[in-house]
C-alpha cells in the first residue's frame, strides 16, 4: 500500500513526469521486498501491454503521414454523391471512422477524424453567411449529425476488435489470468462476436442520425457548398502516396494478418523453431 500511495501522490501532484511515475514500481517493489525486479519487469512487457503499445505506435504512424486523412477523403468523396446526398455523406464519414477505430484505439481515432470532419464542416456557411435562414438551420442540423456520428462511430468500431479499445484487451488479460483452463479469447473469436454486434449498432446509429438531422431540404442546402470537386481538390493537395505511407500500410496489413490468423502464424513459427533446433 505504501508503494501504491507513493505512485498515487506522484500522479496527483505532478511532482515528476507521468512516465517516471508509471515506472516507479520497477524500483519501489524490489526496494520494499514486494517483488523481484525480474517479475516486475516481466509484468511491464505483458502480451496485453505490448499489444496496446503496438496499436498506439501504429496510430501515431498513421496520423504522422496523414494516411487517415487520405482514406477519409477517398471514402467521403465516394459517398458524397452528385448532387450531395446527406445520408450517404454521413454514412461515408461515420463508416470511415468506424473502420479506423476497429484497428486503433477509439480515442486516437476520434482525435484523428475530428479534424477531417471539421474540415468538411468549415466549408458550410455560418450565421448570416447562409443564403436563407432555412438553409442555415439545415446546415447546423447536419453539422451536429457529423460530430455526433464521428464520436459514436468511433466507440462502436472499438467494440469490433481486440485492438479497438483498451477495455477489450484488459478483459483478455484478465480472462487468461483467472481462467487459464478455458479456451483463450483470440482476435478472430472476438471479432466473430463483436463485429456483427457493431454492425447492428452502427446501422441503428446511422438511421437515428438521418431521421433526427437530415430532411428533404438538407441536400439542397449543402449542394451549394460541398461536392465531389471540393473533396478531390483537397485529396490532390496531399499528392501521391510516399514510400513511408506505403510502408505503414504494409505493416498495418501484416499486423492485421497476424492478429486474424494467429493459429497459422503460431504453427509456422513452431515449425521454424523445430527446423532450427534440428540443424543444431
TrEMBL record:
Q: Which InterPro entries match?
A: SLC13A/DASS (IPR001898)
Per UniProt, what is one GO molecular function of this protein?
Answer: malate transmembrane transporter activity
For this UniProt entry, what is the primary localization, expressed as one broad class?
Answer: membrane
> Per the record, a Pfam family?
Na_sulph_symp
| Coiled coil regions, renumbered to chain | none
- Can you tell me where the transmembrane regions are? 6-28, 48-67, 87-104, 150-173, 193-214
Q: Where in the cell is it found?
A: Membrane
Q: Which residues form the signal peptide?
A: 1-15
Membrane topology value: Multi-pass membrane protein
Keywords annotated in UniProt: Membrane, Signal, Transmembrane, Transmembrane helix
Report the superkingdom from the record.
Answer: Eukaryota
Gene Ontology cellular component terms for the protein in this record: plasma membrane
Q: State the name under which the record lists this protein.
A: Tonoplast dicarboxylate transporter
Protein source organism = Aegilops tauschii subsp. strangulata
Q: What is the lineage of its organism?
A: Eukaryota, Viridiplantae, Streptophyta, Embryophyta, Tracheophyta
Amino acid at each position: 500500500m505504501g508503494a501504491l500511495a507513493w505512485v498515487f501522490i506522484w500522479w496527483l501532484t505532478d511532482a515528476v513526469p507521468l512516465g517516471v511515475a508509471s515506472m516507479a514500481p520497477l524500483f519501489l517493489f524490489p526496494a520494499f521486498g514486494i517483488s523481484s525486479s525480474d517479475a516486475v519487469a516481466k509484468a511491464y512487457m505483458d502480451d496485453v501491454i505490448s499489444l496496446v503499445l503496438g496499436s498506439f505506435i501504429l496510430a501515431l504512424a498513421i496520423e504522422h503521414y496523414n494516411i487517415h486523412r487520405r482514406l477519409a477523403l477517398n471514402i467521403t468523396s465516394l459517398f458524397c454523391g452528385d448532387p450531395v446526398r446527406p445520408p450517404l455523406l454521413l454514412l461515408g464519414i461515420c463508416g470511415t471512422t468506424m473502420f479506423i477505430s476497429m484497428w486503433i484505439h477509439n480515442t486516437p481515432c476520434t482525435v484523428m477524424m475530428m479534424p477531417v470532419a471539421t474540415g468538411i464542416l468549415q466549408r458550410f456557411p455560418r450565421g448570416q453567411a447562409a443564403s436563407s435562414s432555412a438553409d442555415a438551420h439545415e446546415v447546423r442540423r447536419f453539422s451536429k449529425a457529423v460530430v455526433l456520428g464521428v464520436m459514436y462511430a468511433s466507440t462502436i468500431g472499438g467494440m469490433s476488435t481486440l485492438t479497438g479499445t483498451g477495455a477489450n484487451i484488459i478483459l483478455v488479460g484478465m480472462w487468461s489470468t483467472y481462467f487459464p483452463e478455458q479456451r483463450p479469447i483470440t482476435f478472430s473469436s472476438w471479432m466473430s462476436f463483436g463485429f456483427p454486434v457493431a454492425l447492428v449498432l452502427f446501422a441503428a446509429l446511422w438511421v437515428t442520425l438521418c431521421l433526427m438531422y437530415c430532411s428533404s431540404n438538407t441536400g439542397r442546402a449543402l449542394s451549394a457548398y460541398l461536392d465531389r470537386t471540393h473533396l478531390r481538390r483537397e485529396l490532390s493537395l496531399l499528392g501521391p502516396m510516399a514510400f513511408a505511407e506505403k510502408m505503414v500500410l504494409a505493416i498495418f496489413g501484416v499486423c492485421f494478418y497476424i492478429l486474424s490468423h494467429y493459429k497459422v502464424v503460431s504453427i509456422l513459427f513452431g515449425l521454424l523453431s523445430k527446423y532450427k533446433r534440428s540443424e543444431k
